[in-house]
Amino acid sequence: MVRPGPDGRGVIADFTDAAQGPLLALRADIDALRIQDAKAVAYHSQRPGIMHACGHDGHSAVVLGALLGLQAARQQSLLPRAFKVRGIFQPAEETAQGALEMISVGALENVAAILSVHLDPSRPVGRIGVRYGALTAACDSIEINIHGRGGHAARPHLSLDPIQTAAQLINTLYQSVPRAVDSQDPVVVTIGQITAGDSANVIPDHAILRGTLRTLGGAVRVQVISHIQQLARGLAEASGTRIEIQFGDSAPPVDNNTDLSDLLRRAGGDVLGVDRIDIIPRTSMGGEDFAFYLEQVPGAMFRLGCASTEVGGAPLHSPHFDIAEDALAIGAKVLARVAVLWSESQQGFNHG
Question: Of 200, 227, 250, which residue constitutes the final position of a domain?
Fold first, then answer.
């Protein structure tokens, strides 16, 4: 059975051999990024200013390949009798909204566990990474509005320059935030967008900064948010501007279930050999809205190596991001193998 996601975006596809029983969900994300594709290849993006720079097209291909492979195995009567799997192809991962939207339309109904994959350009094709516990960080969006007083570029003393205040605030955030928390608590603040002004010889009256705050959640997150607000209040008073800060679109950390991580490790070993499985030693500061599914059911995500000597190596969110496509078949085989192992066991998994 196949049905659309919210507002016709996304797809939920069930492949089952049993009328009743728990489902294993395989999740892929399908959205792209507002980046101009800089690859000089025949398969570069055909949409100006939009490209798959985070591998979501690859994730969709991996999950679809796993489902098609399982369907073929079912037609040959090679699957366990209790086999039940669901494919979830979700929109809007990059804005941390898609998982919640899919959950709201029943994507997790009857789901007992969920698995996902993320392409990893730092890892060569033929290797996967498995992480126990926290895989990614909590990610909060930040929007900062600086209200000043516009004027002539030749007479800055008659204005309250929001661009000058923005520059000071960015430098202050980058220098101060890491020193406001324990050095053993990872924290990353990045401003990725600055919007201000229309003319080179005019001081605008308004500037907007947008970025992200990444922590491992908990008390550190609360502490850093408070510190950022304190810095903004101090700079607003010193500059005479008015600064407003909004935090939103927060995704919690992805916390991989131990039993499912074990199952991924076993499946990866079956497909690639145990010597091709890497245990990821520490949490990534990237964010993932896959975490919202894990607030409802146990799950795990693994990293799929996608770099070769000829292709790949550029980081995620780079205009040069590319993958060695051999990785897609490997990822599909690993997910299909996990689905078979999970269906054979039909054991319950607890959070943790």
Answer: 250
Compute the C-alpha angle 275/279/284, nearest 5°: 145
Number of separate domains in the chain: 2
Do 11 and 145 belong together in one domain?
Answer: no
Per-residue pLDDT of the chain (352 residues; tens, 9 = 90+): 899 999 999 999 998 876 677 899 999 999 999 999 999 999 999 999 999 999 999 999 999 999 999 999 989 988 877 789 999 999 999 999 999 999 999 999 999 999 999 999 999 999 999 999 999 999 999 999 999 999 999 999 999 999 999 999 999 999 999 999 999 999 999 999 999 999 999 999 999 999 999 999 889 999 999 999 999 999 999 999 999 999 987 899 999 999 999 999 999 999 999 999 999 999 999 999 999 999 999 999 999 999 999 997 899 999 999 999 999 999 999 999 999 999 988 744 454 5
Which residues are CB-contacts of 189 (< 8 A; sequence separation ≥ 6)? 142, 173, 174, 177, 211, 212, 213, 214, 224, 228
Structure tokens at 296: 């409802």
What does pTM read for this prediction? 0.92
Task: For strands 299-307 and 111-124, give the pairing.
Answer: parallel
Alpha-carbon distance 288 to 310, whole Å? 28
Shared domain for 113 and 14, answered yes or no, is yes
CA distances for 106 relative to 23, 87, 102, 242, 298, angstroms: 13, 13, 7, 43, 16
Last residue of a domain, one of 181, 216, 250: 250
What DSSP string runs through 28-48? Answer: EE---BS------STTS-SST
Nearest to 25 by CA among 133, 131, 116, 128: 116
